[in-house]
């Protein structure tokens, strides 16, 4: 279970609200652990992935609009993440799905997401706010 913490605030309303939704989706996936329901877990993972895709797109557009200097590095992190999640899904397609795999996915998602928000997304938020309210 991830609990929302003010330390996760980026300061851009739309991004913060999407981050909260993503945390809720990760928690939903967590709730499926130990249920042995492969199909529900696969659906929840798929939904989370498409939500994340839209979220990364929103951040990418913002970075482009702001001519954000850290754009390439930030986008690369998003891509590495997506590739990693795709890798999990490929394994799943070949039937290598297990309780252990769901645990691994959750551990990875949680760790990656919280680290990414507190570093890259917060830097982006600070930059965006400085542009809107200079000084
Ligand atoms: Fe984000
Ligand atoms: Fe990001």
UniProtKB/TrEMBL annotation:
Residues 11-125 form the Hemerythrin-like domain. InterPro entries: Hemerythrin (IPR050669), Hemerythrin-like (IPR012312), Hemerythrin-like_sf (IPR035938), Hemerythrin_metal-bd (IPR012827). Keywords: Iron, Metal-binding. One of its GO terms (molecular function) is metal ion binding. The keyword Transmembrane helix does not apply. Pfam families: Hemerythrin. The keyword Iron applies. It comes from the Bacteria. Belongs to the hemerythrin family. This is Bacteriohemerythrin.
